[in-house]
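G., before I forget:
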Amino acid sequence: MKSKKLFFLVAIFLSLTIALGMASAADYPKKPIKFLIPFGAGGAADLMGRALAAGTKPYLGQPIVAVNRPGAGGGIMYSALKASRRDGYTVGWNSLSILTSTNIGNVPFKYTAFDHVCRIGYTGMPIAVRADAPWKTFEQFISYAKKNPGKIKIGNAGTGSGTHLTAVLIEKEFGIKVIHVPLGGKRRVPSLLGGEVEAICVPIPEIAPQVQAGQARIIIMTTAKKDPAYPNIPTLKEMGYPIVMELFRGISVPKGTPVSIINILAEAFRKGAESPEFQKIAKQKGFKVSYMGRKEFEAYLKVQDASIAKAMRLGGLVK
Amino acid sequence: MHSMALAALFEVLHIQNLFAIMVGVVFGLFIGSTPGLTISLGMVLLLPITFNLPPVTSICLLLGLFASGMTGGSFSAILLNIPGTPSASATAIDGHEMTKKGIGGRALGTAVTSSFFGGMFGLVCLALASPLIAKAALRFGAPELFALVLLGITLICSFGQTSMVKALISGILGLIIMTVGLDPMMGTPRFTFGVVELQAGISFLPAMIGLFAIPQVLVGIAGKTRVIPQYRDKISGVLPRIRDILKLLKPMSLGALVGTGVGAIPGAGGPIAVFLSYDYARRISKKSLNFGKGEPEGVAAPEAANNAVAGGALIPMLTLGIPGDPITAILMGALMIHGLVPGPLLFQQTPQFVYSVFWAFLFANIMNLLISLSTIKIWVSVLKVPEKILLPIIATLCIVGTYALRNTFFDTGIMFCFGLLAYFMNKYGFPVVPMLLAIILGPNLEKHLRMSLIISQGDPSIFVKHPISLIFIILSAISIIGPFLAPALKPKRRAYR
């Protein structure tokens, strides 16, 4: 008698759970969505993320609440995202940091611990030198570095960051020896202009004002495609070198989120990326809006991850 | 040129722009006085509004917030001994002592006037000597910054009047705590014991709130002594007399000078400016023995400094297009949204806009002075609230503030740990300010030290070969040896009398 009652209760409970689970996909979203940002208030990731959240809100019909979870190069946010429920009410605003923070081994999972909704676009991370530097082209820069091993210092945002790894890949590809200086975000441009380092690897928007003012020059692009704003600057890829590094940004959710929910999110964020709110800030931050769907983004991440892992090995950051 | 400056003046005087400044100032006072709510967070909240405003109105709104946020931080520092912003932590030392003496109104008045003085000084430097200062600021590389921060750290010795050993223990403990987190150069975890949350390091805001506010609440709960100073019916001296201001001219000028200079150096930060100016104000003061016991000069110097930092920070942003801190980075972003790219070209292409920025900053400071002075009585009346109501409110603010910082209760836990630590430190006579100093400056000290050594490839002579760095290192040495020499010199002086 008792066991029959228990069985009955379990059956009701299970059917309720299933019914609720199905309902969540059908009338998703029915409450506000948490939008985790891996960096602090005021940075590029934060401002763009908040603008995207605002621009996407009308297409989901629910508020998208930006929540900063900075720290550990993004590791804190990705850990929090991984631990949240697979119901589509917590989404992560990812970036290249989803590959760097996981590959360096500070968190015990890889980028494959998530389902990836879509890529929104990317920013280039070129190499820049002072305007009065003796090297007019990238080739001259490399040949000087070859003749003077250990003389060139290249600044980056921090050891293991995308800008550092880009410089490592260039160093190993061309067989030169440079000193990597982890200047950090605030100090890299002043250090370049002040003459402390010879070159920096830097996201385009930070160096663009200096280029326009004639204080600095970009000598090489590291994106897959040429930047129309800098038609004379070649990319490493078109020069025949297998280096592509892009500071991409997109959306990830905890692994196992229903595909129907992922599709709803992907469609909403695609439209959100076209909203005037987001377009405005994307333009200012030198961010190329270039949408990729779920499958395409997964394939893109796989290639980028392999190249990050390679750079980490070459740079001696992982064994 | 003059016509353009005049046109810019009329533009800023437009009612809509003055209103924007006012909104910014009021919002900034609120943000600044609430522990845990930072000026950069306030700016991020206002930023989306600026997208749809004309550029001059946007900058008016944001500069209003920037100018008053620094002042607002000192209000809670003076009245409740809880610095609203890190840059107000030096103000708490003497400001709160003044409140205890029952002259909290006068302390606030001094803070507001000094803020105004500092802000105006920063503005004059910005308007007249921008290119020159910006050029000098660029000479601050890693070794120079290391030496500057080292000088800041040596101030620990200045807080060891009662016991040098206890001050050093407090400071070194702070330095050790700050090694928790990701190694700043290598990116590998240190002392995190497998806790991912600790990889972000110990953020200094929860530490600061814990060190200052929690012991007060704990002592208050014990109920034996009153921790919030009694409200005195007669609030005298709120409006500072000219005579008093003139007396404070020396510490204010010192603070303004240090604030503008340090503010202009990208990545140096406001807290170091306020502590340096506090310490040097004490050294040059005739009343140096009163410092720490409620000396108005100890409020004037750091308050002038932290508002001058605002003007200083605008210098590299406007002239070079380099934002030195998160606040100016957001300001720069707001300008770029409107197609205005800060940097040398801004002065050539849109000089009228640059004048508008100067005027807007001027009016932001004036508005800040007027609004702050006229609301001092309201602020002081916080002390009228009975302790049993006020203390829970403070505790709630601390919890909400530390949570809001990074949206995690982990930081709230950190705050309580520091609170408990500070409670026992107070009980056994260990000063907490050295620990705070170490926590704020420690990460920069390590970062710039190691960065310099990477640049010099391990050669420590880089610190003495660079002249600016050498000067700061000599000053640091004086700072360390000074307190030991002072007792030896004093008896002689007495003998003369």
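Residues 2-486 of chain B form one domain. The two ends of chain B are 59 Å apart (CA to CA).

More on Monday.
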